[in-house]
Specification:
Elements: E1 5-10, H1 17-27, E2 30-34, H2 35-44, H3 48-59, H4 65-80, E3 87-91, H5 97-110, E4 113-121, H6 124-132, H7 141-155, H8 157-164, E5 168-172, H9 177-192
Parallel strand pairs: 1-3, 1-4, 2-3, 4-5
Helix pairs in contact: 2-3, 4-5
Amino acid sequence: MKSLEFLIFLGPPGSGKGTQAEILTNKLNFIHLSIGDLLRENIVNNTELGKLASKYVKSGELVPDELIIDLMDSFITELKNESNVSGIILDGFPRTINQATALENKIKQLNVNIKAVLNLDISDQEILNRLAGRGREDDKPELIKNRLKVYRNQTEPLLEFYKERSLLDTIDGDQSESDVSNAIFNILKAEVA
Ligand code: AMP
């Protein structure tokens, strides 16, 4: 069975997960999985998944775990059969302890590894500055506040979950885009060495 590696990005909305994941996919032979992008595509195309997910995405709440775990499961199973991919960058997944446990089971079953969990740590002020300039439908100020609350309550406990597994690396996400990506490269180089 082919070996696949996983890189996980954690961090609040606006912390640069998507941007940094794109920079990395261009340098490594990795695929970028953004559950948020997948959901938005499904909503635009009005698929069954899109119809189910729409109200959650539009209100800044998390889509129920069962739906997201199924999505992740089929994506990873499909990719596992593609011979030319070295790994997957997970951007915005897992976002709950349930999702992290499901991912852990999946990767055990496939006999693959989590290479690192990269936590982009960013101040609330910087989040507001960045999201104000992005203009996504769920980037309105009242929704940003709700998404931040959801992050603190449901996703932040993952920092401890991955710290316990010695997988967590925290990066100062207030830095410039290139400084953040240099910091990430240094961490990944150290992992290889
Ligand atoms: P993002 O593009 O990562 O900011 O995600 C946008 C929205 O998609 C979130 O506010 C959630 O409604 C939904 N979403 C993305 N990833 C997940 C996930 N792992 N679990 C549940 N909902 C998610």
